Amino acid sequence: MKYFPPLKLNSCEQIARIIRHWLAFSWRVQSILSVSERERIADLIEASEKKHTAEIAVAIEARLSWDYLKRKACARERAWNAFGKMQVWDTPQNNGVLIYLLWADKRIEIVADRSLAQVVPQAQWDMWVQCLNHHAKQHRWGEGLAQVISEIDVVLCQCFPQTAQYSDVNRASNRPEIF
């Protein structure tokens, strides 16, 4: 199990974070992606997963539960938990990837299973997060997700192509999951 150190927040920052999370409602997150953008992303993921053995998933969460907040948990910890909960990790070659957004903290995390993390340098993951942040600031989430998913698809097709030995089945939903 991974260890994630608690965030270093003073009491004022912690109170502000709790209030921010308390006021982050899931109905507000629904508007990040239009229905057509959700369908486009699902179609992109479905087409991508037919060419490689990896699993791609997108999760958007409005806020953290009290259990996470009281122990000052970071968005990355929650992303790893969602990664497991959504069964993105459940691939024979350990090559799943989750794009995770925590709305209340304005945090984007990309979590990759161990085989995939070994072939993609951290600098590339950071660039994809920066790309998503850039699109988020312009309220163009759909475009950002489509771009990053397409770029991840290229890497997955090169490193983990479908073969007779590994022809993976779809394990997780291709639609962006909103918690």
The radius of gyration is 16 Å
**How many individual β-strands?**
4
Tell me the strand order in the biggest sheet: 3-2-1-4
Structural class: alpha/beta
The proportion of residues in beta strands is 5-15%
Question: Which percent range fits the helix content?
Answer: 40-55%
Tally of alpha and pi helices: 8
**Major sheet size, sense and barrel closure:** 4 strands, mixed
From the spread of the alpha carbons, the general shape counts as globular
Protein architecture, described:
By secondary structure, the chain is α/β, with parallel strands linked by helices. 50% of the residues lie in helices and 11% in strands. It contains eight helices and four strands; from the N terminus they run αααβααββαααβ. Strands 3-2-1-4 form a four-stranded mixed sheet, with helices on both faces. A hairpin with a 4-residue loop joins strand 2 and strand 3. Helix 7 packs antiparallel against helix 8. The chain starts with 10 loop residues before the first helix and ends with a strand.
